[in-house]
Sequence to fold (466 residues):
Amino acid sequence: MRKSVLFACLCLALSAGAQKKEGGISSKMLSEIQKEQKLTPSDRALVNAIAANSIDLLAVNRDNAGALDTHFSIETRRQSITDQKSSGRCWMFSGLNVLRSDFNLRTDTLSTDFSQAYLFFWDQLEKANLMLQGCIDTGQKPMDDVRVQFFFRSPIGDGGTFCGVADLAEKYGLVPSEVMPESFSSDNTSKARQLIASKLREYGLQLREMVQKGKKASALEKAKTRMLCQIYHMLQYTIGNPPEKFTYAFKNAKGLAVGTPKEYTPLSFYQEVMGGKQLNGTFIMVMNDPRREYYKTYEVELDRHTYDGHNWKYVNLPMDDIEQMAIATLKAGHKLYSSYDVGKMLDRKRGYADTENFDYGSLFGTTFPMSKAERISTFDSGSTHAMTLTAVDLDAKGKATKWKVENSWGADWGQKGCLIMTDRWLREYMFRLVVPNEYVPQKVMQAYQLPPVMVMPEDPLFLPDE
Fold:
């Protein structure tokens, strides 16, 4: 009798947890769907064409495919184009592009290229520490806790934001690209990242176990240090050994060395190229997020590169305000770090982004009417790629009509390594901009200095730039 009662209870529990049939595709529903699929001869031609060709090729708006106007009324000094290869380091390339441009603007005759591999080494070590310390800090929480899962889901990655450039350069300095060149694994990061992430997950479980057993803080720090020794070792093998000292002479516009070579440490080199000042505190980050109230400051929890560094903090502004700051900064000769949902409406062959490049609606007999706020809320759009804003073209009334950025996909891509974007595209798909303090209006700076609203890193808009 007991077995039969137990079996009946088990069946009842299973049936209660089973998926209800009402939400599935019924035969009636499928019949109604299929009745709508009456293909005309034109439809059949489209079926054949779409099956055998690129959707973008078929959806090209021929009315918008003419020659591009490449003139810009305001354009900063041109510099060499970088290439992030098969890595997600666009934030670093864009940030360092801004720093080398500012150095050239300040010295007028001198130039240099910064090593992305050098800063990437420290970025990866710091992110490893951020993950391991996060496992210690959340060690008493269950594995399915949202914060615990945050650390284990993505223990380490290539992506980031400009605050990472500021914190890392301030802590570890900079070196010229010729002092620490790229390696295969800095150009092609996926395999090394996968192996290091696996090791970090293993170490994270060990640290959680120590926390739950009540181990002292000193024991946890000793264990974490031992773990970071192994991560450092793996980074040495894959990226290279970061130099402690080097000898270097700056170059002029013709690429010739100027003056006597001088011995530097990475930190003394950083001080020289920055003119003796620190990067943190000299800029603010702004964003256009139409879901949230404008002229308020937001901070993204755990969105930082170093455990002891700065979370990403930004003031949310209308696009009109963002554009005015961008124009003022470009007029003064400064390039800007900026980020976009670059894959949307992008003509890769021409290096041209415009909302009218493709007519997907006509191709599929539908429309795509979501607003910018709706696209963000539904994970349909968000910041995916950082580029260096370099130029703007203004009409007779001073309104922007198009913009240009230096990309980090090599000099052979697009417009000689650059991307031209219409103003209507920028307003829809631009999200972030880093602005030097001297070009920030008082109203915006006052908003930036207010206590921030904390935003969770799971928000759809706060994926790192890659």
Q: What stands out?
A: The mean pLDDT is 93. The longest strand covers residues 385-394.
